[in-house]
Design goal:
With 212 residues, the chain is α+β, with helices and mostly antiparallel strands. The protein has four helices and nine strands, in the order αβαβββαβββββα. 22% of the residues lie in helices and 58% in strands.
Length: 212
């Protein structure tokens, strides 16, 4: 009986040590990822404007949001990082608002650069639940293609800069060093964002540089 209690006690200590180590593994981790998103904030605004029939342009096609992100865990459950992404949209003028006076098609390219904070709520061996907060600037370039040479006096292209955000209340990552993830949110990465990520530890590198 005493041996069983001793074994149970040792097993409990082992489990506690494992859980404690697991909770600390995120500290000093570098996480890099690539992803594709669907239904960006720009697309959502375009859709709402189209429903309200107050948009001069009608979006007809869009690529996914392609993003590369890299973050560093400054705390066991908090990572700060940068993200860079791009998306292209295309469509044509809205005849209900502009009539046939200036028909055109357009192509629109977006480049987004932002800073993000990742807050991890649950961390298990192969499972992670987290939230993402992002603040970014987007650069948009729109090229106009007019249907008739007569209308080529109109703007050929225009550029714009504007602030952008991302709020992802639900993120799920499955795996260890190499993992897959799915995010649900709103903003520059889209309503749905999925991809793969890889994490490495920077702790040993820091010790080597310090000569320890």
């Amino acid at each position: 009986m005493s041996n069983n209690l001793k074994h149970s006690f040792l097993l409990g200590l082992t489990l506690i040590a494992c859980l404690t180590a697991n909770a600390q593994t995120l500290q000093s981790q570098v996480l890099c990822s690539g992803s594709m998103g669907y239904a960006s904030g720009v697309q959502m605004l375009n859709y709402l404007s189209a429903q309200a029939k107050n948009n001069d342009r009608i979006e007809t096609a869009a690529t996914p949001n392609y993003f590369m992100s890299c973050s560093y865990f400054v705390r066991p459950h908090l990572a700060l990082g940068l993200t860079v992404g791009m998306q292209s949209l295309s469509g044509h003028s809205n005849p209900d608002r502009l009539g046939a006076s200036s028909p055109y098609s357009y192509n629109q390219d977006y480049l987004t650069i932002g800073a993000e904070a990742v807050v991890v709520h649950r961390q298990r061996k192969y499972l992670q639940l987290y939230t993402v907060y992002g603040l970014a600037f987007s650069y948009a370039k729109t090229r106009f293609n007019y249907s008739y040479p007569t209308y080529n006096d109109g703007p050929q292209f225009k550029t714009a800069y504007y602030p952008n955000i991302q709020f992802t209340p639900f993120g799920l990552r499955v795996g260890r060093a190499l993992s897959g993830f799915l995010e649900v949110g709103v903003g520059y990465k889209g309503f749905l964002n999925a991809g793969i990520s890889y994490s490495i530890s920077a702790r040993e590198d820091v010790k080597e540089v310090g000569g320890e």
